[in-house]
Structures
1.
Amino acid sequence: MRIEYFIMVDRIRSLSTKDGLVVCEATVPVESTIYQGHFPGHPILPGVLLVEAMAQTAGWLILALTKFERFPFLSMINDAKLRDFVTPGTELVLEARLMHEGSGFARTSNRVLAGDKVKCEATTTFRVLPFPTPVFRQSVTAHALQVGFPAEYVTNAG
Amino acid sequence: MSTTFDTVANIIAETCDIPRDNIKPESHAIDDLGIDSLDFLDIAFAIDKAFGIKLPLEQWTQEVNEGKATTEQYFVLKNLCERIDELKAAKGA
């Protein structure tokens, strides 16, 4: 997890479009300036960043479903529950499951675990739109390979 | 068994917190009920799930933007329900 770059997923552990499921991993940084404010003497990962981590996890699944033809832009967050503190150094497992792939949108249910404990969960909806620029698409493609995006889903990526 | 309109009206009422009695077959989802595109995603999700179909929202939007169709054809509820029935029939064919 590289908070300063808003990169919340370290690695894709598994991804299946057939099952509509992606599982990712992320380690919460031990050091970050964010903890100076959130909170002094009680450092925890802000809940909004956990929601972003769930959205990015789901995003990898949707990118695979669209074969990198389109990008999922987060549009709605529902039923978000932040169940427990997430502290520096925690190793997280992030899961996203496809609920529905509609026309120009997709909805996923997501959760984040530390060990066998669910730390948070949310439902997320995305507008799934053509990549706005080739540069953006190339950048996402390059990052996908860095985080272990399964090569068979990247074949159409430019 | 509820009609397509009843199901759609109930979805809209629940999703957008609009009194059920205000939702008529002649209502335009956008102009009369004030439903915006984001709320309509919620409605589309619920309709897709309720009827086992996939509303072709992108195709409809493109047709409207290109002047090939009017919003009334897709977003007046009685017309929307006709489209839904067509999609249901096509799925069952």
2.
Amino acid sequence: MSNARKPIYMDYSSTTPTDQRVADKMAQYLTVDTAFGNPASSSHTFGWDADVAVKTARKQVADLINADPREIVWTSGATEANNLAIKGAAHFNTRKGKHIVTSKTEHKAVLDTCRQLEREGFEVTYLDPMDNGLIDLEVLKAALRDDTTVVSIMHVNNEIGVIQDIAAIGEICRERKIIFHVDAAQSTGKCPIDLEVLKVDLMSFCAHKTYGPKGIGALYVRRKPRVRIEAQIHGGGHERGMRSGTLATHQIVGMGECFRIAKEEMATENDRLLMLRNRLYDGFKDMEEVYVNGDLEQRVAANLNISFNFVEGESLMMSLKDIAVSSGSACTSASLEPSYVLRALGRNDELAHSSLRFTLGRFTTVEDVDYAIEQTRSAVEKLRDLSPLWDMYNEGIDLDSVVWAAH
Amino acid sequence: MAYSEKVIDHYENPRNVGAMDKDALEVGTGMVGAPACGDVMKLQIKVGADGIIEDAKFKTYGCGSAIASSSLLTEWVKGKSLDEVQAIKNTDIAEELELPPVKVHCSVLAEDAIKAAVADYRSKQ
């Protein structure tokens, strides 16, 4: 492998580069000759200019999701938005009950928030998804109780890219007057969101997965019917008391601009990404013992999560030195546990260890995809030559019948 | 994962990859680990009439440090007696490869592999 080659980024679900147009906008709200003021300073022009910028951005974010700008609460990111939504709604509604429903494939920002609520005396049901990663609506219905106050289900899964049917889940929750929160960190710019139609009460967003800066996000809080949450961060009463703290004008402007671009370019971008993703998958299809993780239809265009059986993911990534991807292998995580998302699909642990996640984006080219195919294929071939499991498979030994010494 | 140059060298140029006839009397085979845990090592030794290991081969499914640990081990055991290789400690391997703490279990697996190979050989005699 040549060292001269610039590394190829195929980890867009981890984060995206900030679009140049976004960065240029942000730079207009930082230094002394720009509108650096505090948007809450209502007594001078520095504050007014910043306030106008924040209002514009609020509208841009609202426009992408067809909401009212007054329904947007700025946060530091999707993690904070998830915390505010789930804790805020759970705490506000304790008189009705203390039961929360979520799923096992949620992001840690949701799962760990639920764990904290369990420590505080709430009860949480973690739904098992179907093998394709989607929530079975009947299973969800069966989990709901009279004391259920919040359901939190993500829109697009960060590892496998599957899209949950939040329209149907919203109907189920609304009928029962249960608050429905959706973590939409991975879906902006990847699938359309219309909150006039969707019966979603709270929705979390961030900028850095949609070509905006890190460190900024938002929570959508529905006005009609009005959803009330308890603040988690107290102070100057910003954001109608729901989230105090001086607004980070440049970050907010960045989020507004990247959501504006997403709305404009989503359709054409997704066509292109789907073409690239299909090309990537076509490059692996004829290989033996290759499995796509998660539903391939109900899935965002940019994601391919695929397991190369009998090859371990971390060593595979070592061979793909100049391609940035991620793996569900235990060896890539500090906990030495394989991906909990893949395990929740009922995949055996071997397939979780053998998985690679390719996530494509705005700056991915056909050449990048072709290079990734070529490199991955030769790495898999090399590692299978090294793999005792591959030999056993070729000898026709059923690996499940072998008694292994787990360690 | 910041690996040492030695790990990367063994990973990129693994020594003694291959397999020997596991039914041959002079061959001892050790297979340790489990696919569910993310690493499986198969280590084979061929022992001469004088009790000295003439040849060693490995195949490993696992992360870079698991591959490097087994590759290094095959280099070390060649030319040694069974008693000598029994004395190889996982810490020797971890030290030589400068394994980070979360990867020390790979060297443990390698130690287990050589012990299992020796035991298999002895059981055949």
3.
Amino acid sequence: MPARVVKKRRRKLAQSSRALGNGKRLKVEDSARLAVSLPSRPTWPYVPAPETHDYIKLAPRYELFVGGKWLTPKSDRHFASINPATEDVLTHVADASSEDVDGAVRAARVAYEKYWRRCPGRERAKYLYRIARAITERSRELAVLESLDTGKPIRESRDFDIPLAAAHFFYYAGWADKLEWAFPNMTPRPLGVAGQIIPWNFPLLMAAWKIAPALACGNTVVLKPAETTPLSALWLAEIIQHADLPPGVVNIITGGPETGAALVRQPQLDKIAFTGSTEVGKEIARECARLHRRVTLELGGKAANIVFDDAPIDQAIEGIINGIFFNQGHVCCAGSRLLVQESVLDLVVHKLSRRMQTLRVGQPLDKNTDVGAINSKAQLEKITALADTGEASGCTRYETKCALPARGFWFRPTFFTGVSLSHRIAQEEIFGPVLSVMTFRTPDEAVEKANNTKYGLSAGVWTDKGSKNFKIVSQLRAGVVWANTYNKFDPSSPFGGYKESGFGREGGVHGLLPYLER
Amino acid sequence: MATRAVVRKTHKLYIGGAFVRSESGRTFPLSSHGQVVQIARASRKDVRDAVRAARTAWPSWRDRSAYNRGQIVYRLAEIIESRRDQFVDTLRVTGSALGAAEKEVSAAIDRIVWYAGWCDKIEQLLSTKNPVGLSHFNVSSPEPTGVVGLVAPFEPGLIALISVVVPVLCGGNCAVVIASEREPLSAVAFAEAIVTADVPAGVVNILTGYRPETVPTLAGHMDVNALDLRIADEAQDAAAAQLACNNVKRVRRHGEPPNRFWYTGAAQGPDWIEAFMEIKTVWHPAGV
């Protein structure tokens, strides 16, 4: 770059930082002083506001939902599902063997041939509407159950997971009898039987994302929820039973990685849909390639959340917080890499650390809780180990000072500064409340850094300049881009990744394609 | 008087806009009409060079207006039409009857014209504005996936090659093509048309050679985003599809359909373009 251009750019940068800092660059100390000059307000401690959960009656153990019936697994093995916030055992669920997987696929095949492929779209629609309604009717108990099983705050399960799950069924119900209008010059035909494997971060919502479009398109399914969070899917099975869906249209089998592997290998399936880690996704893709089986994958991410110096900084702070601490950071599209334009770095870091300090970490069933429990011990160990590499490689760690409960799995909201692209915390998906802060000077550098990842699921852009926003958005290699917002979802809006974040879309009209013959 | 000796052509690879010999210095013989011609035999290194050329060319190809891409693709049809005798002769060298060769060239040209018009329409066809239940503006639209690796069927030499390459270009992708080792001459002629039609250097790269040498390198390459495999050999096809999982490539596998397939409406469609595009969804708050 010619020296003249460099000089010009530096001058511009200096101007923009002056604009923010009343003639001089804002430093942490300056803004701290500003904060002190505000009239001091009295603060009150929060009193506990627990959501009642004594009416949640869990059976001592749950079996496999196959062919419309509850079947004891051939192995007769069950494993515990625990509450990660207390480590108490909630109940026991069946561990499906490969024989059980075969049985479930057989049941789904029979249901496909006997009922579902002959069932007119308008009738399929009504069953899906029933499920949507039933989820809404039982939404509060489902929310409480979800929080008990996953450790996520009740505020999120109540206001996000459950209503959105119901909305997905409602949205795709309406497609079931309109598929002929979805794609020009295409006669829509179902694939047959789909095997679906979902993760532990949004158990009921992921079940809805998988089941609703599959059924709307006329497929039957065998769904395997994650080992640590099977309960809401089992309650969904009850809802489906009460909705009088023909037996075997939806089969739900619980188990660990071996159950999942048996499902992927099962010879009678027509399709696998998987949401989870890129590592497991690649193994599944290889197996499907060997079997010449259709597959769609929604895998990991390491999203860049880009903050320009002309961004609405206070809104951006909220977006950053939501982007990385929503659901304890157990979000594949979490904004886990914060890219801040150098001129506003100090301001953003200062504001972010102050805002983080107000996050309430604690009991998931407390209505004031912002950040709940880490989903499992294994995940807590993974997050801890990866975060430790941040310090080991010389990054500066900042974490909130809140007290953590004595039992259960917890991790303080954390961010690192001084991170560079080659650090593990900048490249690997942590899947926890840990943010890596990096900087950039020019828009080109922001795009380059944002795209410097094997992933491509999502990204965020913060700037009040419209034309810049459009340009940056178009250059980001990611399937979902949130501009001046973050972590927004809707059933009508397609979601899915570029590159190693997978392929296929869930949501919207595009979300029908993975379940239709082409 | 001595008869004039015909000037014969050296058949090379087409990488990054240049006609080059294989870096390995190897060729393979192709006999036709009692004459043997040598065809460049691409190495693994040639495949990697071609991928790099495609990746380098991609940002500029992607960022061109769809109208401009449409014009370039249409220009390709113009060039082939103006050289149809050459393309017919090339097909006849590898054994086509005159009528069949004429038919194949015409079908190929018509297919290119059909796709030229898609360049600036596919986005409208696949885009949606989504009625989200939040106070946000939300749109989804397709973008090119990047570098696409193509393994062309063994035959027919021209129409099948064009049917797989052109939709990939329409979507704004760059292509690395493993041409048919049985009918490589059409691929070389096609490369000469591409360069004349002002398709920018590196947007299409064409390699001739043997599949067992070239396909695994292309299929496992970490900077290739997608694959279109037209391989009848099931073991080879499955091996390539498995290698593709190294970086989660989008893979289309359709084997090698009978020759007549390529002349039907099923051998073209907007879904052929869409297969190598990614849907991007963008959210923005709406409010004052």
